[in-house]
Amino acid sequence: MARRSRIIRVIWAACLLLAALNHARILAQNGLAWDYGGVSATSALYWSSLTILDPLTASLLFIRPKIGIPLTITLITTNVVHNLAITATFSREGEFLSRVGSSWAIISQLAFMLFVAGTASIAWRGSNATP
């Protein structure tokens, strides 16, 4: 079980690190003060903070898995909910589903969230053997 947990946490960490690189790329291209195309300051701050929160969470998956595992679940869930809310806010009537379906970012986040949900119990149970 410990080996399976470690493998799952490696996959989670890789996804989180790729997401962090994407957020870092966005900030490098647009600067810290960018409003992400007109979103609220709170939403812009949330997205920018993922540049730090994603790699921090990825490291906690191995340093302190009992913190990193629930943090991963929380982070991907809040990210998906936030992104769906922003998409709904900026969608005209009847275009929400097509915007979600055509967004590689949202589709990949939804897939990651489902993977995390489906593997969380294995990651948790096997993490007891991890320092």
Question: How is the topology of this model organized?
Answer:
Layout: H1 2-30, H2 41-63, H3 65-89, H4 96-101, H5 104-125
Tags for this model:
80% helix, globular, mainly alpha, 5 helices, 131 residues
3D structure, described in words:
The chain has one domain (2-129). It contains five helices and no strands. It is an all-alpha fold. The model has no long low-confidence stretch (mean pLDDT 91). It is 80% helix and 0% strand. The longest helix has 29 residues, at 2-30.
Summarize the amount of helix as a percent range. Answer: over 70%
Total domain count: 1
Molecular shape: globular
Content of β-strand? under 5%
The major sheet is characterized as: none
Please report the number of helical segments.
Answer: 5
Through-space gap between termini: 15 Å
Secondary-structure element pattern, one letter each: HHHHH
Q: What structural class is derived from the secondary structure elements?
A: mainly alpha
Poorly predicted regions are none
Instruction: Kindly report the average pLDDT value.
Output: 91
Structure, briefly:
The protein is 80% helix and 0% strand. It is built from five helices and no strands.
